[in-house]
Specification:
Elements lengths: L1 H24 L2 H20 L3 H28 L5 H45 L1 H13 L1 H25 L6 H16 L1
Helix pairs in contact: 1-4, 6-7
Length: 191
């Protein structure tokens, strides 16, 4: 059974992914309508913009960015620690942190994989209509007295039918007739 469950999980994951994709695709028409409503105002704003003003603004931002990068680079180069031992310890610390982060992400990925697989299993059950069957099973668990009453009613006719047959023909071999009644009683006890 474990092998079957291991084979089902990727399939449920694929079904969950497909179901989530369909859910996201249903949102697309609303986004398209929103963009279509906003597009004329944005196009008009671009048409009314002076190209020279935009060019001057971009040039000023580029000069500021260049000055910032040069100053940061000078700070980094000036602040480099030349002590090799300290650099080695820092590299080792970073490597250990990297392993820890990788392990954490692996755990998170596995959890997310299992969530999507569970979603896929629910989607498959919904597609098959098995959700209604589970509700009936839950109802039987919640209300066991009614289910037991139904089982005892079903057992009584089987036993009653076996007894008259035994009473009518006592001269013949009754062992053959008793065997099915015993099997039915044993099967009922197992349930």
């Amino acid at each position: 059974m474990a092998i079957i469950d291991e084979l089902r999980t990727p399939l449920y994951f694929a079904a969950g992914t497909a179901d989530l994709a369909v859910q996201q695709a249903r949102k697309v028409p609303g986004l398209i309508e929103q963009i279509a409503a906003e597009a004329p105002a944005r196009i008009e704003a671009v048409r009314n913009t002076d190209p020279k003003a935009v060019q001057e603004k971009v040039t000023a931002q580029a000069k500021e960015a260049q000055a910032t990068v040069q100053s940061k680079f000078a700070d980094v180069v000036g602040g480099l620690d030349t002590d090799l031992k300290k650099l080695g310890e820092t590299a080792q610390d970073l490597a250990l942190r990297g392993v820890g982060v990788a392990a954490e992400y692996a755990v998170k990925a596995r959890e997310k994989y299992e969530e999507v697989a569970a979603h896929g299993e629910e989607a498959v059950k919904a597609w098959r209509g098995e959700v209604a069957e589970e509700i009936v099973e839950i109802a039987v668990v919640v209300e066991p007295e009614e289910a037991k009453a139904e089982e005892t009613e079903a057992e009584e006719p089987v036993e009653a039918a076996a007894q008259p047959a035994e009473a009518k023909k006592p001269a013949r071999k009754t062992t053959a007739r008793k065997a099915p009644a015993k099997k039915a009683a044993v099967a009922a006890e197992k349930e």
